Amino acid sequence: MTRLQTLQGFYQNHVQPYYQKAHKNREENKPIAWVASTFPIEILQAMDITPIWPENYASVCAARQVSVQLAEVAERHGYSRDLCSYARTVIGSVLTEKTQDLPEGGMPKPNFLVASTAACDTHLKWFQILSHHLKRPLFLLDVPYNTTGADAENLEPQLIRQYVSQLEELAAFLEKQTNNPLDRNKLRKSITLSDRTSKLWLEIQDCRKNIPAPMGARDAFSAIFFMLSTPAAQDAVDFYEKLLDEVKGRARNGVGKIENERYRLIWDNLPMWFNLKFFNYLNNLGAIVVAETFSHVWTGSLDSSKPFESLARKYLPNFANCSIERRIDLILNLTKDFRANLIILPTNWGCRMMSIGEIIVKEAVYKKTEVPSLILDVDSSDSRNYDEYQVKTKLETYLKTLD
Amino acid sequence: MRILQSFRNILSERHDIARSWKNQNKPVIGWNSTYTPEEIIHAMDALPVRILGSTKPTMLADAYLPRNACSFARSTFDLALRSSYAYLDGFVTSNSCDNFNKTYDLWRHCTKIPYFHFINTPHTNTQKAHDFFHQEITRFKESLEETFKTTITNKKIQHSIQLCNENRDLLKKIYDLRKRDTPLINGTETLEIVLSSMLTSKSEHNTLLKQLLKEIETRIDPPKPGVRLLITGSMMGTPDLLNIIESVGGIAVADDLCTGTRYFWTLVQTDKNPIKAISKRYLNKIPSPSRYNWEERVSHIKNMIKQFNVEAVINFLLKFCDTHMFDAPLLTEELKNQGIHVLNVEWEHTRSGIAPIKNRIEAFIETIKGVP
What are the chain B neighbours of A122 within 8 Å (beta carbons)? Predict the structure, then answer.
């Protein structure tokens, strides 16, 4: 049950150097932006702006077991314990006085922040608060809600127009902030790289359809770092090519992540970052996560001849920005394609967007596939909202009913 | 005063009012976010009704919603499951917050309401946002026309703008009664009046308001004076909390609530194009915390504090109402810097744990009063 070869020492080899390089860029006065997920990061990368992703930093803090103490700092400043634990962790890291204790020395201070409304209310409010405390400007991409839950090809045209017209404003904002024009050739290159990264990642995911599955969630939740933090970079492409080789090879040779694969699971949304060992525990029960919705919602084809339009088509259909039908379809397709026999729907305590509607997903998927779903009350990075005994009892009892 | 009872009656008889409207073969459309233009619904001779929760237990909704969902959204959904809203011909929501957007999915899946519409309200009020929102309101109008086989003419819209604006003007006059040193009306009564304006026809409500304004100057049972408070926070669909405040030595003289000033304070400006005038008004109104222009919210509150001679602020935060909870610390700091005390209270719509809340409010009011 060891990790994939390519993933050995992933944090030390890739995440840590990323933060070190960012700190160095800060010292050299190169522009740094704090970015919320569902933001078209490709444009920043085309302008050599270093994107720092507070959500990733929150997960790092959780894995390093410091998120609770940081969340408590935010709570002492009046932020409710019921708010998103990512947000509390990061606000705490900005307000804490003990910066020397922060993982990776904290996030390097940004020149500006960018966020979109595509994922949740939290992004808007959280980045507003960060912008206030850091005294740095925030650019907000006001993304219309994808009411029909349409996919990239079937989006309503007025949504695309509204999105694209704001990317023009974004370009102007970034040009002003960095004193650098957006070079359209570099943008096309960035789009091409991100497209390649996304395709490689999907190919890796495809290999997990194999029985036995060659890769599990523990590895996927690490490896997705490039997809999210820096998709339009050669590093990302190189890494995923290597990973694809390994995963493909394992699939071809019938080498599974675990021996005696008994249960194939779909994992919706976020893991408990403070307890990634949970996936090893699942493996010991003969269960393997074959697909995470998280590994699929960030993908999307990009067309370098239409950079802005294709970014609109990539980000508007993110299921967080859609009516529930989109999430149902995604989980339904994953269930069929990956031949899963159980779906885990984790409720994230501080997340309305993710938690509300799980029951409709559960019912709709069961009706069409007879594959059951199990709702687990957890939290992405606040271990105080996680009762291990309860979760494990519930899960083990449930697995027995599948035999 | 007997006239005040009329407003209270509208609240308690709201479902009957809606049903009697329907009996005249006129549609009833439910809405839940203050970014929904009632004017357009009015203009097709339909009754727009605000979807309000109740304080009763929510057993049916609990089967569908996780524990960490907003208890107001939960309560309204529970009523829908109990068929309390079975009379609705349509339900309209407006991109407002995660709790509403995601429970809207549940409404669509679990109720038999024949018509649903989602207005894609932007979070900003830039020119681009205005242009987009103008189209959205036009789409909403066209969708109503198509569904209800009717034509909503500009003339009809102009007329309903006039009615709604008159209602807003009259409500402001009611608010003025609390600017006085000895308010002629209290917060509980005012909230009942504003809530009732969302549940009956505007013309009928205007008539009642005019009558009230005529009679109130000679009121023989004015409210007890007390510590002058501004109430802000999440959705407040019943006057229970204000009742508590006003039973322990406080008086709510102003508010920043979506069932108060955020609902009616801003008027529609006249414009040759009435839809444009409406879309402008809604995007520029006193913002909810879910919008980007949070400074406008703060300045509205500060403005109210000045105009109504407010001594302290109570911020009622519904559990799991993210946008209000996120705003609370900075809002508190802003107001404290102005020498205004703020009490932040988390509460559940079903009123569980109301006793300790009462104690805190009482203690807070005592502190403001100071030791005699």
Answer: 98, 322, 326
